[in-house]
Amino acid sequence: MPIGYTMFPVLLSILLASNAYASNNLQDEFIELFHSRIFENEINETLEDLKKTLRDGNPAIGLPSFDPYQLNYTDVNLKLENILTTNASASNIVVSGIPDFIATFLNLDIAELELNFTILFPEIDARTEYEGTGKLFQFVPIFGKGKASAKLANAEIEGYVKISFSKQISLLDLKLALTIGSAQFNLTGFMDDEEYSQGLVKTLDAYVGSIINDYKEEISEAVSPIIKDLINDYLKNKNFLFP
């Protein structure tokens, strides 16, 4: 499951909370108060409200329920230079565990409109049906059609967001770095062969966690701009400004 589908609702919710603070016409002499922990209780209460919103959804802003998150269809076209290319699709996507996130660190700088945060997902479960073709190392053909699932434990995302409220809310910059405690996978239909499927599962179980953790900076550089564009596309022509 692409990280974007997991992080999108959480980031959007944090942005809306930030907007609630920033849209008040604060005098300059009060801005420094936001650099202290004076609003810690209010921020914690807001995060609890946001978790409830993620569970229940909010039709007024087009936010569906994420308990669980469901998506009918998406393309999965990957291009990792000299390693992997795919032309695939995923359908009947279900992801659970998103509203159970824990914000272990949150620092909102109102003056600079910047947000640094660390979010922990104790457990994320994702499942989907997939179909596609691809090439491994540019010349080894791969294909498959079946079901796939993943369970991530203690997935932690460190993030930085710079926000703009010029005319409408948008992201000027976004950086995300993912680490995970453990990962378990299941897969059917890879190369239309059960032995190949189970062999790939063993490989994913053994190496995905360490690869994500060891190459988190490289993954961040590749994924962060994609998620930024996804969020900005969603925010286009939407007015979240508070009166």
TrEMBL record:
Keyword Signal in annotation: yes
Keyword Signal carried by entry: yes
Q: Which SMART domains match?
A: JHBP
For this UniProt entry, which segments traverse the membrane? none
Q: Please name the Gene3D superfamilies in this protein's record.
A: Haemolymph juvenile hormone binding protein
User: Where does the UniProt annotation place the signal sequence?
Assistant: 1-22
The source's superkingdom equals Eukaryota
Q: Which UniProt keywords apply?
A: Signal
Query: InterPro entries of this UniProt entry?
Result: Haemolymph_juvenile_hormone-bd, To_sf
Tell me the PANTHER family matching this sequence.
IP17226P, PROTEIN TAKEOUT-LIKE PROTEIN
Designated name of the protein: Uncharacterized protein LOC108563663
Organism this protein belongs to:
Nicrophorus vespilloides
Give the taxonomic lineage as stored in the record: Eukaryota, Metazoa, Ecdysozoa, Arthropoda, Hexapoda
